[in-house]
Amino acid sequence: MRAALQLSEAGLKTAVLSKVFPTRSHTVAAQGGVSASLGNSEEDHWHWHMYDTVKGSDWLGDQDAIEFMCREAPKVVTELEHFGMPFDRNADGTIYQRPFGGHMSNFGEKPVRRACAAADRTGHAMLHALYQRNVRANTHFFVEWMALDLIRDADGNVQGVIAMEMETSEIVVFQAKATLFATGGAGRIYASSTNAFINTGDGLGMAARAGIPLEDMEFWQFHPTGVAGAGVLITEGVRGEGGILRNSAGERFMERYAPNAKDLASRDVVSRAMVTEINEGRGCGPNKDHVLLDITHLDPEVIMSKLPGIREISIKFAGVDPIKAPIPVVPTCHYQMGGIPTNYHGEVVVGGKPVTGFYAAGECACASVHGANRLGTNSLLDLLVFGKSSANSMIDFIKQQPLELPELATSDVERSVARVERLNKQTNGVAVNDARTAMQRTMQAHCGVFRFKDMLAQGVEKILEVEKMVQQTEISDKSSVFNMARIEALELENLIEVAKATMISANARTESRGAHVRDDAPDTAETPNGRDDANWLKHTLWSRDGNRLEYKPVNMQPLTVDTIALKTRSY
Amino acid sequence: MTTETVKFRIYRYDPDKDAKPYMQDISVELDSTDRKLLDALTKLKVKDDTITFRRSCREGVCGSDAMNINGKNGLACLTDFRDLKQPIELRPLPGLPVVRDLIVDMTQFFKQYHSIKPYVINDTPPPERERLQSPEDREELNGLYECILCACCSTSCPSFWWNPDKFVGPAGLLAAYRFIADTRDTAINERLDNLEDPYRLFRCHTIMNCVDVCPKGLNPTKAIGKIKDLMVKRAV
């Protein structure tokens, strides 16, 4: 949406294809904030933001991209305000900022207020503001169209996508001089996820089928506070406003795991602490299977003004009014750190070279700014910064192109049509729900918060079995009108690519780093917390063809400042 | 795990094969972890994959799964099915053309939303930093900006049913006031002119169905009242 705005305002003819009406995309569910070192409440600096992001990434993030993002942050957040974003305000009229996990001042010293917020509805306010600005800019939206496949010509250059209009099932070629994927994450590969139904990794599936490798797919963020049982997200902003995690003894257990940052340590650290508490029998509830997020000590006025959406979610999905009683929470799959490999210009990069005409931004892309673990609020920032930078790259590229579009080969289209045809003709097949459930259970059991050598190896075998089920899915709905059964089957073909990439990449990485933590990675002086920089300070690249794995180095060289040197990570 | 059988009556229409719509009686086994109507619909779809509805976030912020539930508009993902009388009768949102089953064509609804120019208008060059706004001025936007465009309100409004092409409807008017009330917006007069017409604003007869059904607890009638006040003030 940010990219579309940049393109439309530059006077380019811009088509946005979306499976849902644009304000229904999952950005709408982001709650806590968008980070920028505005320093509205206390001193802050982009360099400190950069340090926090590199540390949060467990040094797997590329430092050129991270510097770019953190330096651009104040500019793009200010622009968003100018676009009409209804940020909360400080008494002096500036944008309200709250503390968040892993946001520290002065290179990790103490928490700082960096998360710019609109109550606990920041994503909703942002998505609507960007849509509204796009309405003003006359962006052309193709609403309820599902992209099926990427079109690459004989030279590998990207020429657009093949897409299906959901209302009519008509398949159409969208030829374009430049194509951007902003297709979001694929959290639905897991059984328990904060993600929406639509988060099925369509961009990743299309890229993988078109021969583009996927980067760092073993790294998935489990958000500490999903509502137990329901999976619905409770923002870290709750802890930013003073919320505390407690175990069955009522103990504030994060003091033991992160003496400095406590409840505001990085998400991977908090999630592991919670699972450890539960595994050691200090979980809450009759099944001792969750912990409690306590805000009963906060002023009800603060809850009503700063966390109204959370109160609503808690009442609706946990049956608890957080003013009176703590919220039952459990770590829940939330965010995909990996994705389509790009540079900080938003260009998709394969084999060290940009793929002509192809760009990606947001959760589906891997720039890589999040590395092995994303900091809260850096996802909304990622959208703004890389949405804009990729659009600027597209504008420059399009200016150099001839006016006429090249002729397309029919074989490009046939691949998509064949997939739909296979599905329509399948008999004695597998129900979509059965295949999807098998995939989600396998991912949850074999590739969760803590990972085990044997389970991962079995997981690889199992997920390849599930893939065979996905190749034989059958639907009984054959209608051409808004056939959601068909859409779900096509989505599953994308999800399974992501699931394979995740399991195979995770099985191969025999260290612990950020969100990827294995039982067989020893904690030694050379490999603190199991992190093995000598062998594993590198990005994974998984290719669909033969499930091939390759690696590329992490870019440790920022654009203008010194490298943030490797260090043991503690909060 | 304890299970229970829940009965439904669902509006079905597939223009590909049905000459006209009909109501389908169907039941589904639900277990104790299922709470919401959307959980039930998801299981119904496993049983019969032709049952068609929109859904996405399943937490009441995307606005996809609005439908008519036992005669009242609401979001399936926020409605507890155990609170509903059975058979639970599900119909598409009233007053808009049905595409298929519980899916309606929302073109007219969004056309009205777009007609109020739903974006901040301010032609003065923006400052280096954010435009300042006091917490009190920002407070004015609460209860307005949270709209999720689910259309529960507009499709429960008789005035919108009769004149969907002329009456902006509660959702669009709530959005109109959201921009009028924003101190950063400089186009109040233009916005009021845009609503100065026998239909666009004044077809609201304060029936207040919109307030009754809004899943986010917003109050379009109040916002409409404020626009009418501004019209009157401007006239005198």
From TrEMBL, chain B:
Entry-linked SUPFAM superfamilies: 2Fe-2S ferredoxin-like, alpha-helical ferredoxin
This protein's UniProt keywords: 2Fe-2S, 3Fe-4S, 4Fe-4S, Electron transport, Iron, Iron-sulfur, Metal-binding, Oxidoreductase, Transport, Tricarboxylic acid cycle
Pathway annotation from the record: Carbohydrate metabolism; tricarboxylic acid cycle; fumarate from succinate (bacterial route): step 1/1
Gene3D superfamilies (alphabetical): 3.10.20.30, Alpha-helical ferredoxin
UniProt domain 4Fe-4S ferredoxin-type: residue ranges: 137-167
Cofactor mode of binding and number, as noted: Binds 1 [4Fe-4S] cluster.
Superkingdom of origin organism: Bacteria
Signal peptide: none
2Fe-2S ferredoxin-type domain residues: 6-96
Cofactor: [4Fe-4S] cluster; [3Fe-4S] cluster; [2Fe-2S] cluster
GO molecular function: 2 iron, 2 sulfur cluster binding; 3 iron, 4 sulfur cluster binding; 4 iron, 4 sulfur cluster binding; electron transfer activity; metal ion binding; succinate dehydrogenase (quinone) activity
Family per record: Belongs to the succinate dehydrogenase/fumarate reductase iron-sulfur protein family.
Protein name, entry field: Succinate dehydrogenase iron-sulfur subunit
Organism per entry: Aquitalea palustris
